[in-house]
Structures are given as structure tokens and as C-alpha cells.
Design a protein that fits this description.
By secondary structure, the chain is of the alpha+beta class. It has one domain: Nuclear Transport Factor 2, Chain: A, CATH 3.10.450. It has five helices and six strands. It has a six-stranded mixed sheet with strand order 2-1-6-5-4-3. β1 and β2 form a beta hairpin. The chain is elongated. It starts with a helix and ends with a helix.
Length: 174
């Protein structure tokens, strides 16, 4: 009887430890995650502004994709690192500041997406993307940078870029 009691205690302790470990590895609540994702995006912007190449790219997942403002700018992380290196080597890559940010989650709280308006050297831009929780931290899986165009001047912008993008449209339509 004593051995059964001792065995039962060990099983209860083991189950308790497993339960505690499981609770510790679950995703934090969405409010905490939103704060962490906001900090990640702020880190992304700060590290670019001070040309901190390593920490900037540590914000991205290894299989991340970056899409820039030009239609031809679609890079995996390694390609983006090569493209961006000369900008970081100058001592300042780009300087973006979030003006308005929104973060959304899937049901598992392991995947989120965001959109934000940014103050940039190109005036107001939009950053949007997907972040995933990997090894207890958030990483950018996809980032899309877009220039905003006020509706009142969209015809002028379309006319200005038309001849530049007509050939791209043709080549991609084939």
C-alpha cells in the first residue's frame, strides 16, 4: 500500500510538472502579443535608422519575404540582405516611424498580421505584413512596403508611371 501511495504521488507530481510546462509554452494573451509585435516593428524601424544590419535582419524569419515599393522588389530574406547591405554600410539605411498601427490575430494566436501608416523620407507609406511566433518570439514572415497616393492626384501618378510600367505589365501578362 505504501508503494502504491508513493507511486501515485510521483504520478501526480509528474502530471503537474507536465501541465505546468505546457502552460508555460502556450502563446501569451493577445494583448501581450500585440505589445511584443509592436516592439518588434519598432525595433525594425530603429535598427534601420541606425544601420544596425544584424539586428534589423534578426527581426525577420529565415524564410521571410520582403516586397518594396517598386513592382520588381520582391526578395527572400537572403536576397533582401544583399540588396540592403550598401544602404546599411552608409551608416543609415532608412528612417521610418509608425504613425498608426493595427495588429490582428488568428485563433491560435501564433500568427498575426499588421498594417501601419509610416512617416518616411517618401512621406506617408504603408507597411503591412505577417508575423509568426517561432521559438517563443515573434518574427516577420512577410513585409510589404507601399507608398500611399492621395486620390486627388492618382491620375497624375498613374500618368507619370504609365510608360515605366507598361512593359512590366506586358511581360507579366504572358
Amino acid at each position: 500500500m505504501k508503494q502504491t501511495h508513493l507511486y501515485f504521488k510521483r504520478v501526480v507530481i509528474l502530471v503537474g510538472l507536465l501541465w505546468f510546462t505546457q502552460c508555460k509554452t502556450e502563446a501569451p494573451d493577445q494583448k501581450t502579443s500585440a505589445t511584443q509585435i509592436g516592439a518588434l516593428l519598432d525595433t525594425l524601424n530603429r535598427t534601420a535608422a541606425r544601420a544596425d544590419y544584424q539586428n534589423y535582419f534578426n527581426c525577420y524569419a529565415e524564410d521571410a519575404v520582403f516586397m518594396g515599393t517598386d513592382a520588381t522588389e520582391r526578395w527572400n530574406k537572403k536576397e533582401f540582405m544583399v540588396w540592403a547591405k550598401p544602404y546599411f554600410d552608409r551608416g543609415k539605411a532608412w528612417d521610418f516611424t509608425s504613425l498608426d498601427r493595427r495588429i490582428y490575430f488568428d485563433e491560435s494566436s501564433q500568427l498575426a498580421w499588421f498594417d501601419e501608416l509610416l512617416k518616411t523620407q517618401m512621406k506617408v507609406c504603408r507597411g503591412s505584413g505577417i508575423v509568426v511566433r517561432e521559438n517563443q518570439e515573434w518574427k516577420i514572415k512577410q513585409y510589404v512596403l507601399s507608398m500611399t497616393i492621395p486620390n486627388s492626384i492618382s491620375d497624375t501618378v498613374i500618368h507619370a508611371k504609365g510608360s515605366l510600367e507598361d512593359s512590366l505589365i506586358q511581360s507579366l501578362s504572358r
